């Protein structure tokens, strides 16, 4: 079993492969998507453990088993069920009967707002489940460019974290009178002037808008586009898009013998 990607999904797959008395090898290169986050949450028994520490502990657990791990990027995948060949970046090859693709995704963030990327995982987060409990009741913000009726439920959900919700829409929101009244009644602040800068502060972020207004917030929620890190699924002809790999309930892709796990299978 060749497991490509040594993040949370890949190392879990490696543990089960070893415990299932199957021969497995992990090839991984590059940081986990989790790397920028200081204190990830929601992982039983390890709530708040920094991601690098978490992955180091996972590696130490795997040391008890016979699962070789290569620090190398897979650049090419060819072959078919029971006879796959992976080419590594140094030109070496690995042969495998089965493949697990656990190469993760990357978050493509808007480039035109200085500070947004730099604060990713610190003052800027994408997931209120991962980072929300910590800032409950405080001043929070949501970056929702092109705000329209489809986003109203998302706004109301974020208000569960705190009633003090500022929404940055960059342009005039496309909302009807009923929705505008609802957001007004709920005390949600809308700023439609473009967000032009995000600065990290001791307690979160300072947001600056094109009209000169500024606001201090404990967190800014923003969503990047999640794009697959690798096109290995496509190389093998698996059904996949730029964003995710299609699997059946057994995690198998459309190509027999090729499985996928972790963020790569999310939409
Ligand atoms: C800012 C932030 C905060 C988050 N906070 C939380 C949280 O609090 N709680 C939570 O549960 N989740 C959180 N997440 C989500 C979490 O990071 C992901 O769900 C998780 O990392 C997915 O694990 P994975 O194994 O699928 O991918 P990853 O962890 O990204 O691992 C994939 C690995 O494969 C490697 N790789 C890619 N291409 C190749 C290749 N061609 N060859 C070899 N290796 C390759 C990558 O470099 C990486 O090391 C957060 C995400 C972000 C961005």
Automatic annotation (TrEMBL):
<dbReference type="GO" id="GO:0016491">
    <property type="term" value="F:oxidoreductase activity"/>
</dbReference>
<protein>
    <submittedName>
        <fullName>Thioredoxin reductase</fullName>
    </submittedName>
</protein>
<keyword id="KW-0285">Flavoprotein</keyword>
<dbReference type="InterPro" id="IPR036188">
    <property type="entry name" value="FAD/NAD-bd_sf"/>
</dbReference>
<dbReference type="InterPro" id="IPR023753">
    <property type="entry name" value="FAD/NAD-binding_dom"/>
</dbReference>
<feature type="domain" description="FAD/NAD(P)-binding">
    <location>
        <begin position="2"/>
        <end position="265"/>
    </location>
</feature>
<keyword id="KW-0560">Oxidoreductase</keyword>
<dbReference type="InterPro" id="IPR050097">
    <property type="entry name" value="Ferredoxin-NADP_redctase_2"/>
</dbReference>
<dbReference type="Pfam" id="PF07992">
    <property type="entry name" value="Pyr_redox_2"/>
</dbReference>
